[in-house]
Amino acid sequence: MTITSRRNSHVYNIVSERGSVGQFCLFKSAYRIGEEIVGSFDFSNSLIICLKFSVVLQSEEQIPEDLCNSSKHSSGVTYSSFTSVSEHCLHTKKTHLVLPIPVTVCPEFVSDIVCLKWRLHFEFILASSPLPAGASPVQLTSSHTDVATWQGPPDIEVETVTWDLPIKILPTNPLNASSISTTRTSNAIVF
After folding, report:
1. What is the rounded CA–CA span in Å between residue 116 and residue 107?
2. 5: helix, coil or strand?
């Protein structure tokens, strides 16, 4: 409980080979099963235009080389994706993400046979050249409301930048897990 209740923001600069894309703030780096991962993006001071981002919660299973079946796990590392979120963010200054951790996943652990770790896998779709003139929304005023319309460019040259951020996923309190479950369960804490 102590590890996952610590809140100290971690701010990461997102950069590509051409310059700054933005910043990502993660409010903590250790979570319990069933919690939500909450973070925020700030694209306000970016040099590169981000068109879309996606974030996927992934597990990373590492198996020692001497135990690997060469045909199935040639590298000894397997990635599995769980929950994800994506957002189109052209002309967005700031936004956030909320990514739930399923109650059915396993917390991180290390044994003689396997090492299970967790990470957030980011993909950023960036404009690789400046947008054409008139590529910003135009504000139209009518008698009743302010309406913004915009016709995007027909094609944009893009590049993809990926980034992996390790996080910790720890076991949850059994009382919390049973309150989330839709089936009837019973639990007891024995001292």
Report:
1. 8
2. helix
Q: Is residue 63 within 8 Å of 113, Cβ to Cβ? A: yes
Please count the CA atoms within 13 angstroms of the CA of 179 that sit on its side-chain side: 8
pTM, rounded to two decimals: 0.77
The rounded distance, in Å, linking the Cα atoms of 35 and 105 is: 12
**Digit-coded pLDDT (tens) for 102-131:** 988 989 888 888 889 999 999 999 998 877
Reading phi first (left if > 0) and then psi (alpha if -120 to 50, else beta), residue 134 is in left
22: left (phi over 0), alpha (psi -120 to 50) or beta: left
SS3 123: strand
As a whole number of angstroms, the distance between CA 67 and CA 81 comes to: 23
Q: Say which amino acid occupies 43.
A: F
Using DSSP's 3-state secondary structure scheme, residue 167 falls into: strand
SS (H, E, C) 38-85: EEEEECCCCCCCEEEEEEEEEEEEECCHHHCCCCCCCCCEEEEEEEEE
Range with lowest mean pLDDT among 38-52, 62-76, 102-116, 145-159:
62-76
